[in-house]
Amino acid sequence: MAKIHMVLQGKGGVGKSFVAAMLAQFKISKGQTPTCVDTDPVNATLNGYQNLNVTKLDIMDGDEINSRRFDKLIEMIATTDTDIIIDNGASSFVPLSHYLITNNVPALLKEMGHELIIHTVITGGQALIDTVAGFGQLVQQYPNETVFVVWLNPFWGPIEDGGKSFEQMKAYTTHKTRVAAIVKIPTLKEETFGRDLSEMLQDKHTFAEAIATETNTIMMRQRLKIIQKQLFEQMETAAVL
Q1: Mapped to the 3 state alphabet, what secondary structure does the chain carry?
Q2: Of 10, 28, 138, 189, which cross-links 93 as Cys (Cβ 3.0–4.6 Å)?
């Protein structure tokens, strides 16, 4: 059985491609060879990671899903014996979710013996309300057997509303039985850890590449090791990954 990891969130710029890249790197660190697919029609960020061997697949035709192109993705999934990581863009979020549900794709994947795991991102700042609402909509749309992993990204600000953390918000308490794991992206000091991670992401480098690059300073590489360890330790404890 393969695990089909799909990163979905209707809000753009919240870190979906970061999540997909982290999933791929974590699995590679465990000796696995995941198949990475980038379906974002506007910002194919994941596709920029050369060392992740990403397949770019355009599943959109204007504002609609191109069923024939989407069929290629299903054929790819049907024959796989390795985990698949699919990064999806904000612009295709609504039509893709509609297509998946109306065509009973979650049930189809289950029949194939695969497990669908939906990853969604909650971020602080102005996007907090939208991303929390997006999580609630996803959980309500997908069948009960669909597994969810929530990633908390504090890059744009603290993830709290009226003094309540995400785990205290109604959207989570109502649906917490559907959430298999919560991964908390660490709050990073902007001028050191944050800058190092930002430069790594801009270069489309994996942690392994950046840490092995001798032109990066010793302390930059050390800080990246710390960030990687914080993320991977959380992912290690999430059995669903």
Answers
A1: CCEEEEECCCCCCCCHHHHHHHHHHHHHHCCCCCEEEECCCCCCCHHHCHHHCEEECCCEECCEECHHHHHHHHHHHHCCCCCEEEECCHHHHHHHHHHHHHCCHHHHHHHCCCEEEEEEEEECHHHHHHHHHHHHHHHHHCCCCCEEEEEEEHHHCCCEECCEEHHHCHHHHHHHHHEEEEEECCCCCHHHHHHHHHHHHHCCCCHHHHHHCCCCCHHHHHHHHHHHHHHHHHHHHCCCC
A2: 10
**N residues, the chain:** 241
Distance CA 135, CA 54 (A): 26
Residue-wise pLDDT for 16-66, tens only, equals 999 999 999 999 999 999 999 999 988 899 999 999 999 999 999 988 999
Instruction: Report the predicted TM-score, pTM, of the whole model to 2 decimal places.
Output: 0.96
**Beta-carbon neighbour count of residue 145 at 10 Å?**
12
For residues 173 and 132, is the Cβ–Cβ distance under 8 A? no
Question: How many other CB atoms are there within 10 angstroms of residue 220's CB atom?
Answer: 20
Beta bridge partners of 148: 118, 179
Bridging pattern class, strands 160-161 and 164-165 = antiparallel
Is residue 118 within 8 A of residue 148, CB to CB? The reply is yes
Can you read off the two tokens belonging to residue 231? 């993320």
